[in-house]
Recover the amino acids of this structure.
């Protein structure tokens, strides 16, 4: 019974989203990327880590048998880009999940309860924000043994501050709205009001921030891996692929170019979808 | 100084009929001026009133005079700077948790803004169901039946339950807000400008609905409005507020036929009447001057007052709210 | 005073929206004569503001568009096809406009004096005396106008910012700005809706006295029938993008012809006496994307019969001079007597359809 109305609402949002041509392009790209990442074992022509006869196969320019060429170990770049997509995308998704959860919780609590709690939490945010994120990442990763799990966790733990500020701001607005007063008058408890009445009304900007954040996270992962602090070779991630090709940039441009392009397109795709979502979910456009 | 509560006769003859009562309510807000100097705004000052069982008390006055603040204080949504609110004789400030929950069930609020007062992310059925479940009023199949019944009470069909607020017109949303208030089976409803945001052709529907509900469920209303014609239609008694204070109160017929306070008189004179020009009743009109700077002492209305007897005496001391004849209260030394 | 000051013919303004095309103003025609006050009344969303904006070509285009065949003539000069430069002269010059919200229509970062002066200098030729030019003259005239609209101590208040004034005072400033260029027509879109009644009555009186003095015609947009009765000479009642009734104030309030007008007059509470029950107009205000077919009031009309499936014209009636209503009852007046009229809505018989979304 309730699902019908919800479905209608979803359809309305989809209709507005689908009118956004660039967003659709972005979504198509993301679907394509995710699809290829999932199907990487089936799609990849070679084993991404196979190093057979290095001397004969290394530094091959793109050709029919190696569409994106090979690297200095003779590994097929195309296969590695496909497998790298799995790593980069899952780190992106998981890290943003952590960041969003943390950011929403902290922002919501600070905004809703206000007072000293708010001051303390927001000072904390300021403190974390006053370090450049990359420096923070480098320090954190340098302290521990680099691993995929660590990279994900660290990216998540350093990415929530923006979200918490957005959420806090929204909660401050929603908290003053009359339907929240109505809930108080009806004798609802504070937890219920926060969870059922305030939070659902601040999710729109969170979803948008999450979508835009995935691009950033993937970029940050690439930067870490480029510095050798992220995903460790031989596991392929786009970042460490770019890094591994940087010495041979002029002679073997394809080693850096293709994973680089993958990063650019992915970040762009998420940003386009984020922009499209922002317009489609904008409550001012709901009549 | 606390004046006598503005209340009907029934009130003073034993307290049985009094449901909600305010005594000497005041609410001050501190704000910072442009140079950081602290300024105190007295939004509500020395307001006493009683709401009796089954009656409609209207609170009227211009924008910013403190009507909504009074409503919030009566609802216990913010604490008064001084004064007390009592529900059936119990002080709101010293209620236990369970007593407070009971108070929340008995006294409900209806809002002005039919758009902002409903959670846009919940269906109407979800909203009503939540109220019923939090107060354990109905569960299971009974809940669905009760939701249908509540919607019926405000003239909406059962299909409304599965829809979201944005799918309704302003008047329908206002009914949903009323249904939500009715879900807890209250006996007092504080309605803060419930029809001000509605179209003219929809106002009558909601006013009639409120009247029907009062008759059927024996509700008491505190009806807040700035439209004197609307108040005429609903009120048994009227209290007129000016600058945070009640300046006149009496039963509605008397107030409309023989307004005493100069402010009430100029309010009534200023209401444009939808009558052909040829038959416009131009009663004893009392116009008022432009808004002057506020005075610290004396009658707050002094600057705008055009009462023929107005003189320096008015600006010396704050006039008291006095009972001139049974049930007729006026705060003016010259009438 | 024979040819009209403003003549609007078959004005149609549509908007592209998410829900389809909103026919906000759908074929309206009316005239405003020199010096008269015409009230345009109707409920929220019926197209009043869009009408005003269309006259001055201030619509957001897109999503709005003025349909071909629409005509707005100012003393015979077509405005729908006029050049933008000419329109800029007209706006604030021959036709001024004031809005409902005096806070948002005044710029918060300039003093009120600067804003009135600016309006005066923009249309210098019309606002200041011959040979008077420049900022000093504009300032002098501005202070004169602030005084004229009843702002106490105008020299001092000249330097006030909008937020330092009350709503009523801000609306006075708006009036000063609008009238200082001595326009032939003032379009006032709900000028007193945001104000308290006592302030409203002061503003309406101010407008009326300045209008008599300057001979300005006023197109007053409002939803308040009381305001209409107080200030207007003629009334245009709008419903669902169309004018459904046109009459002199006296005729309109004495004997409304269109059922919608009749219903409205019965539904508004009366200050003089408490009624047992208010009459109700059943149903909801329709949306611009889905006006009802046939007579647009049909779903809410107690008199509706089979003929109302056809769209009625604005029919002239013999009842009063210059009155007309878009209703078949004008043709068949005997039906009004046999019809049911607007009853007080019964408590139980009121079940309604939800959601015209
Ligand atoms: N939270 C607050 N902080 C500071 N001042 C406030 C606050 N709430 C209200 N006020 C002030 O108190 C006064 C009374 O406000 P209130 O909202 O009660 O008026 P009202 O009579 O309901 O007006 P309206 O008809 O505009 O709703 C106003 O001057 C307002 O500026
Ligand atoms: N910018 C816009 N975009 C889309 N639709 C619009 C726009 N402006 C107006 N409309 C449509 O035009 C219709 C008429 O609007 P208009 O503002 O003229 O109403 P109104 O009669 O002035 O109402 P109100 O009393 O609320 O001011 C509305 O129903 C709305 O759907
Ligand atoms: S007390 Fe004086 S100033 Fe106040 S209203 Fe009465 S006459 Fe006017
Ligand atoms: Mg209020
Ligand atoms: Mg409008």
């Amino acid at each position: 019974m309730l699902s019908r109305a919800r479905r209608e609402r979803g359809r309305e949002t989809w209709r507005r989203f689908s009118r956004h041509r660039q967003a659709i392009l972005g979504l198509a790209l993301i679907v394509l990327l995710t699809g290829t990442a999932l199907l990487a074992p089936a799609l990849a022509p070679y084993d991404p880590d196979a190093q057979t006869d290095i001397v004969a196969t290394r530094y091959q320019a793109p050709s029919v048998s190696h569409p994106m060429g090979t690297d200095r170990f003779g590994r097929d770049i195309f296969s590695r880009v496909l497998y790298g997509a799995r790593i980069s995308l899952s780190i992106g998704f998981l890290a943003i999940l952590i960041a969003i959860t943390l950011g929403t919780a902290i922002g919501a609590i600070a905004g809703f309860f206000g007072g000293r709690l708010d001051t303390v939490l927001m000072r904390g945010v300021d403190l974390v924000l006053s370090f450049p994120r990359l420096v923070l990442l480098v320090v954190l990763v340098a302290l521990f043994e680099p691993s995929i799990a660590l990279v994900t966790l660290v990216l998540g733990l350093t990415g929530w501050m923006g979200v918490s500020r957005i959420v806090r701001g929204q909660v401050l607005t929603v908290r003053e709205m009359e339907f929240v007063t109505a809930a108080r008058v009806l004798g609802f408890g504070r937890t219920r009001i926060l969870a059922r009445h305030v939070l659902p009304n601040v999710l729109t900007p969170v979803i948008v921030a999450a979508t835009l954040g995935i691009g950033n996270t993937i970029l940050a992962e690439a930067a870490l891996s480029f510095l050798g602090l992220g995903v460790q070779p031989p596991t392929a991630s786009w970042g460490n692929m770019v890094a591994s090709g940087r010495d041979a940039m002029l002679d073997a441009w394809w080693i850096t170019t293709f994973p680089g392009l993958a990063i650019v397109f992915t970040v762009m795709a998420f940003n386009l979808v984020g922009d499209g979502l922002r317009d489609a979910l904008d409550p001012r456009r709901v009549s | 100084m606390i004046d006598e509560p503005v209340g009907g006769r029934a009130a003073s003859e034993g307290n049985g009929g009094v449901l909600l009562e305010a005594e000497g309510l005041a609410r001050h807000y501190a704000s910072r001026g442009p140079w950081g100097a602290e300024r105190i705004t007295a939004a509500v000052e020395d307001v006493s009133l009683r709401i009796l069982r089954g009656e409609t008390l209207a609170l009227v006055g211009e924008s910013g005079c403190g009507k909504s603040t009074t409503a919030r204080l009566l609802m216990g949504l913010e604490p008064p700077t001084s004064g007390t609110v009592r529900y059936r004789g119990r002080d709101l400030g010293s209620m236990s948790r369970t007593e407070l929950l009971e108070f929340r069930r008995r006294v409900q609020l209806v809002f002005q803004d039919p758009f902002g007062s409903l959670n846009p992310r919940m269906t109407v059925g979800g909203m009503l169901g939540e109220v019923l479940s939090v107060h354990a009023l109905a569960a299971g199949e009974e809940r669905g039946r009760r939701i249908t019944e509540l919607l019926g009470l405000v003239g909406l069909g059962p299909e409304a339950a599965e829809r979201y607020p944005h799918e309704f017109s302003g008047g329908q949303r206002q009914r949903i807000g009323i249904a939500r208030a009715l879900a807890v089976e209250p006996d007092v409803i504080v309605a803060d400008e419930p029809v001000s945001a509605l179209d003219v052709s929809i106002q009558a529907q909601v006013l009639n609905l409120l009247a029907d509900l009062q008759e059927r469920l024996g509700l008491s209303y505190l009806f807040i409005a700035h439209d004197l014609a609307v108040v005429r239609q609903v009120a048994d008694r009227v209290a007129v507020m000016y600058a945070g204070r009640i300046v006149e109160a009496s039963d509605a017929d008397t107030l409309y036929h023989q307004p005493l306070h100069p402010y009430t008189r100029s309010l009534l004179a200023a209401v444009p009447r939808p009558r052909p020009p040829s038959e416009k009743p131009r009663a004893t009109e009392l116009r008022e001057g432009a808004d002057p700077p506020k005075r610290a002492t004396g009658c707050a209305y002094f600057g705008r007052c055009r009462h023929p007897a107005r003189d320096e005496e008015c600006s010396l001391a704050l006039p008291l709210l006095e009972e001139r004849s049974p049930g007729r209260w006026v705060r003016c030394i010259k009438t | 005073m024979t040819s009209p000051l403003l003549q609007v013919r078959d004005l149609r303004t549509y908007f592209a929206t998410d829900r389809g095309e909103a026919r906000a103003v759908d074929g309206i025609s009316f005239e405003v004569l020199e010096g008269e006050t015409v009230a345009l009344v109707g409920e929220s969303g019926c197209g009043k503001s869009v009408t005003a904006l269309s006259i001055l070509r201030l619509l957001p285009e897109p999503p709005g568009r003025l349909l071909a065949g629409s005509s707005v003539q100012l003393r015979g000069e077509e405005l729908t096809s006029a050049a933008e430069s000419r329109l800029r002269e007209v706006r604030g010059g021959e036709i001024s406009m004031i809005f409902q919200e005096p806070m948002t229509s005044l710029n918060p970062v300039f003093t009120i004096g600067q804003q009135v002066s600016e309006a005066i200098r923009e249309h210098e030729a019309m606002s200041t005396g011959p040979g008077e030019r420049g900022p000093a003259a504009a300032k002098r005239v501005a202070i004169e106008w602030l005084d004229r609209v009843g702002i106490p101590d105008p020299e001092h208040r000249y330097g006030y910012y909008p937020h330092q004034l009350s709503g009523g005072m801000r609306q006075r400033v708006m009036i000063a700005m609008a009238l200082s260029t001595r326009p032939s027509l003032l379009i006032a879109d709900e000028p007193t809706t945001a104000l308290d009644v006592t302030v409203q009555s002061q503003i309406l009186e101010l407008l009326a006295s300045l209008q008599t003095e300057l001979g300005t015609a006023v197109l007053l947009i409002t939803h308040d029938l009381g305001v209409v009765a107080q200030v207007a000479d003629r009334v245009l009642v709008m419903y669902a993008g169309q004018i459904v009734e046109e009459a002199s104030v006296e005729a309109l309030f004495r004997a409304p012809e269109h059922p919608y007008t009749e219903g409205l007059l019965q539904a508004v509470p009366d200050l003089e006496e408490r009624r047992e029950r208010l009459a109700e107009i059943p149903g909801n205000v329709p949306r611009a994307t889905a006006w009802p077919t046939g007579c647009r009031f049909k779903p809410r009309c107690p008199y509706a019969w089979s003929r109302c499936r056809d769209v009625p014209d604005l029919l002239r009636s013999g009842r009063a001079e210059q009155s007309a209503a878009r209703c078949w009852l004008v043709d068949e007046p005997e039906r009004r007597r046999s019809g049911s009229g607007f009853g007080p809505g019964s408590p139980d018989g009121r079940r309604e359809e939800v959601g015209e979304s």
User: Anything to note?
Assistant: Residues 50 and 93 of chain B are 17 Å apart (CA to CA).
